[in-house]
Amino acid sequence: MKLKYLKSFLLSGLVMVSLAACGKAEQASAPVESVAEVNVNAEANANAGIKKDTLPEGYAVQLVYLDEEAGVDPYQVRIVVTREYLRIDDTDEGKSFVLMDRKAGVVYSAAEANDTVLVLDPKVPEPRPTWSQKLVEKQVPHEDMPKIGGLKGVRYEYYLGDKSCIGAVVVKDLLPEVSRALGEYRSILANQHLASIDTTPVELQIPCDLAINIYEPNRYVSNGLPIIEWNYSGFRRSLVDYNEAFKVPAGLFKLPEKYGRFTLDEMRKRAMDAASAPQTTAPQTKQ
After folding, report:
1. In this predicted model, which residue has the larger pLDDT, 14 or 85?
2. Closest CA to 205 of 217, 216, 194, 192
3. Which terminus of the chain has a lower count of CB atoms within 10 Å, N or C?
């Protein structure tokens, strides 16, 4: 099964993963009435009888989001989190998924289509490039914001100048282990992007994209668990369900043993070698 939400492609050395820009850029916006829908759907599985941060062995927190973006039908994304792992998939136990080993700080992207695993390590470029701009956080008041799990959501938007780059409705203290895991995941991806920034054409360096995916990847996650998020490109993600005591199927956090593994540097080298290889044409047959 293809992972529609995982946009992994090579752009002159820059790998854009997860919330990559797509479609026509526009101001970020989120209809307020949709927040109530999230509350209703999420509340159904909010209390499974096991206290937060005391999950026994074999259990995890499971969240299901609905993703929407230009050019494709809406699709669901599942996130499963324990203290040791984070897994992102298409709501099934298939062999195409993203897995983060939280202790090692390594992200693996398994692709069943070509039996491979892309390995993203947590390396930080040195010296670290500087960023002259900074996202400005604005809290948007909303008196009728509903509660989820007994906690009230807060709406934030983040601007570069007068441009709204990303917005989110977050719930502070809701599933804090999940928020921490998402922050770790986004930080690893940001370091990978940053390592390639010098080889990325200037025309592909969109300020909002640089801010939210490289230089300040965790601004909104640090305020709480996102139940709705949207960005300047038209991407939108909404929480529709969660389970605090999900029984983990056997092998959910294991990578396929027979898949070949390669790093991002190896991926770039393969692409460069293919691009520089001499083109050959078949000899023409005389008539």
Report:
1. 85
2. 194
3. C
Rounded-to-integer distance, Cα 286 and Cα 6, Å: 49
Global pTM reads: 0.79
Residue 241: both structure tokens together = 């369900």
For residue 195, the one-letter residue type is A
By three-state DSSP, how is residue 239 classified? Answer: strand
Q: Calculate the average pLDDT of the chain.
A: 80
CA angle, residues 133, 198, 109, in degrees to nearest 5: 95
DSSP string, 129-169: PP----PEEEEE--TTPPEETTEE-EEEEEEETTEEEEEEE
Rounded alpha-carbon distances, angstroms, from residue 13 to 44, 119, 121, 235: 44, 15, 16, 23
Q: Classify residue 9 by burial, with Cβ atoms within 10 Å: 0-12, 13-18, 19+.
A: exposed
Residue whose pair of structure tokens reads 């996650």 in the numeric block? 221
Q: How far, rounded to the nearest angstrom, does the alpha carbon of residue 23 sit from its chain's CA centroid? A: 17
Q: Please name which of 40, 60, 42 lies closest in space to residue 52, comparing C-alpha atoms.
A: 60
Please compute the mean of the pLDDT values over residues 170-176 and round it to a whole number.
94
Torsion of CA 117, 123, 127, 133, to 10 degrees: 80
Q: Identify each DSSP E strand in the chain by its residue range.
A: 9-11, 14-16, 59-68, 75-81, 85-89, 97-101, 106-111, 116-120, 136-140, 147-148, 151-152, 154-160, 163-171, 225-231, 236-247, 260-263
Residue type, 145: M
pLDDT in tens, 63-72: 999 999 999 9
Identify the pLDDT of residue 24.
Answer: 32
Inform me whether the pLDDT recorded for 114 exceeds 60: yes
**What is the helix, strand, coil percentage profile of the chain, to 5?**
20, 30, 45
Q: What's the CA gap between 151 and 149, in Å, rounded?
A: 5
